[in-house]
Task: structure prediction
Amino acid sequence: MAQTEIAPAKEKTEYRASATKINALVHTKLNVKFDYAKKHLIGKEWVTLKPYAYATDSLTLDAKGMDIRNVSLVNGTSLQSLKYDYDQQQLKIKLGKKFLPGQSYTVFIDYTAKPDELKVKGSAAITDAKGLYFINADGKDKDKPVQIWTQGETEASSVWFPTIDRPNQKTTSEISITVPAKYVTLSNGKLTTQVKGTDGTRTDTWKMDLPHAPYLFMMAVGDFKIYKDKWKDKEVSYYLEPAYAPYAKHSFGTTPEMMTFFSGKLGIDYPWNKYSQIVVRDFVSGAMENTTATLHGEYVQRTDREVLDEYFGQAESTIAHELFHHWFGDYVTAESWSNLTVNESFANFSEVMWAEYKYGKDAGDAHNFEDMANYLGTKDDALKNLVRFHYT
Ligand SMILES: [Zn+2]
Result:
């Protein structure tokens, strides 16, 4: 993620180890649609897992603030109803029998996600870590498009689908999104099918064939124009509001060259099956490196004249940063949030490498100097260990 502000955090004494793996995620298949009036997501999930090291007869999934209608074990073509406890944070499921390490099983869950009604321990509805955001859902604000987008990092994906919401889990994914036919969707991986419904809707299915962590799952829905670019034989695309579509190449056009540069530097070609970037309204951070579908805040959406006025500014360095996360963060993932700084340090360093390669050593040095000044300027943070196992 690229953050706009860093709030000084107090140290805490609790030791933050990697989460213990009882079950390992294997595949996550989701069918979702939306109730714009209620700001709800109506979902069906088929999640495939396997016991990690020991046999187990139970499964705990993170599922925040949902209505759960049905939890079943998939048994061939039939569903076998399962017992579960749900406390609005975790779904504790009895599998009805013991599964052995490596023996995969699939659980079906019928649910509704209610991000705007999410409460933290009995307090009022929260405004961040909602996971799923409805923007101008009732369309009453004439100056703002109607959009839906998600933000998973750190553990907010489990607001919109039940999962083991930890960075030491990885799963392939298949996400089918049903929307009013006038809207465009974006999610992780390749768009494999688009099926028109009889009720003015369309269902888009997105498939991700390499496993990735739950915090990197994403969806976006809205009125976007898609500009298609290319890197080798892979799709590179930019999703922008129609008014900014003519300037897609001005804002994002260096992306394929960055992919070549970083692939060469790292000795591993960009590993994912496409690379899209989208700009949304009211984003809660700077940008987010969702696997193959980076989401940017509005700052990056500019006209050709505005781009001209800026010399290697925040937009281009963030484009480099989020792309580089597709190696450090998405492909190689920190096993706990204690190691998040490893992701972020490499991504920040990539900005310097790109500046030096594209604009010369002085540009790289200047960018490095700015970052260092920022770091040393927040004295409390500069005094902490870079990797820390105690945090609030
Ligand atoms: Zn980052």
